[in-house]
């Protein structure tokens, strides 16, 4: 009898174990997920921009001095580059902002103006009018300084955030607050608060933990992202997501998922994407392992690494290359 009891207990244990494994599989398999019909959501980093080698790049690397041979005449973070990005198929354009001396938001990537322009110092030491007088194409070179193909062509091209919002009243933007100053989050909230609910649905803000936290306090319904919001969502999701539970911290935000860790997320890709859609969260896949979030899917060959029929967001530095690929797929 003892033997039979032990055998029964073992069979019961294995049966329970098998049921749990079956539940986890069925609850997280994309094969059984609700079918997603939409095309991927294309997020154009800085609009249509000059690209550069990422080798040995540091936070203070002057990327304008290492661009590849230009294939177009657009400069990042300008209204013409954003127009071109939307024409090429971008669903959203990412742009960078800094506060100015006269409390406007300048659309410009670098903390200092030394690298790209013919000026020196930081944006907050200048008024918006003074920044517009700079040549933002001054420092670009593809041959180590022998030639500067955009020098003299970038005067009056640095826009204010207000100019961008007025020029593109219906398009979607991901605004990157470049400083870690909480006051800039409050100032951005003050600027965005008068916008209509419809307009704000097309605006997402990301950046350092402190400005994003202060912005979120002022505008709790605005979609935001920071390292803190990412961790608050993903760490508990990795622990409990196999049940189908989505942590409250995942609601109403944006997630940038590095390609090399995406596969560890429960339900990746379709179940995961559906779950995030259900809590009003946008999922963007970026290249690499997360050490450099500017790495994108910048060629047709890159896109082939994505799961079949992937329909989430894609971060790209070359919307001019991949946008047509999805247009042709329609």
From TrEMBL:
InterPro entries in the cross-refs: GP_PDE_dom (IPR030395), PLC-like_Pdiesterase_TIM-brl (IPR017946)
Transmembrane regions: none
Q: Which PANTHER family is this protein grouped with?
A: GLYCEROPHOSPHORYL DIESTER PHOSPHODIESTERASE, GP-PDE DOMAIN-CONTAINING PROTEIN
**Source species, please?**
Priestia endophytica DSM 13796
User: What domain of life is recorded for the organism?
Assistant: Bacteria
Annotated GP-PDE domain ranges read 61-326
What Pfam families does the annotation carry?
A: GDPD
Please state what the protein is called. Glycerophosphoryl diester phosphodiesterase
């Amino acid at each position: 009898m003892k033997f039979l009891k032990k055998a029964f207990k073992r069979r019961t244990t294995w049966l329970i174990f098998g049921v749990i494994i079956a539940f986890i599989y069925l609850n997280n398999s994309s094969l059984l997920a609700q079918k997603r019909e939409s095309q991927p959501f294309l997020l154009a980093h800085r609009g249509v921009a000059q690209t550069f080698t990422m080798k040995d790049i540091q936070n203070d690397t002057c990327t304008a001095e290492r661009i590849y041979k230009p294939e177009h005449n657009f400069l990042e973070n300008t209204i013409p580059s954003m127009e071109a990005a939307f024409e090429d198929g971008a669903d959203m354009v990412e742009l960078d902002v800094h506060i100015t001396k006269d409390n406007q938001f300048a659309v410009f990537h670098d903390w200092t103006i030394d690298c790209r322009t013919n000026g020196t110092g930081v944006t907050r030491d200048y008024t918006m009018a003074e920044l517009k007088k700079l040549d933002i194409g001054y420092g670009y070179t593809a041959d180590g300084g022998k030639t500067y193909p955009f020098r003299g062509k970038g005067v009056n091209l640095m826009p204010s955030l207000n100019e961008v919002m007025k020029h593109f009243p219906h398009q979607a933007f991901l605004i990157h607050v470049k400083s870690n100053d909480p006051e800039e989050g409050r100032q951005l909230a003050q600027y965005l608060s008068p916008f209509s609910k419809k307009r704000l649905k097309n605006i997402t803000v990301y950046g350092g933990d402190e400005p994003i936290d202060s912005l979120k306090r002022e505008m709790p319904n605005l979609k935001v992202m920071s390292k803190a919001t990412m961790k608050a969502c993903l760490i508990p999701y990795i622990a409990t997501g196999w049940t189908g539970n989505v942590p409250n911290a995942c609601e109403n935000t944006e997630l940038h998922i590095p390609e090399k860790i995406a596969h560890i997320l429960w339900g990746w890709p379709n179940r995961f994407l559906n779950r995030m859609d259900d809590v009003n969260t946008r999922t963007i896949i970026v290249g690499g392992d997360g050490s450099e979030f500017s790495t994108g899917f910048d060629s047709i060959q890159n896109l082939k690494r994505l799961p079949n029929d992937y329909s989430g967001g894609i971060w790209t530095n070359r919307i001019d290359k991949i946008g047509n690929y999805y247009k042709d797929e329609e």
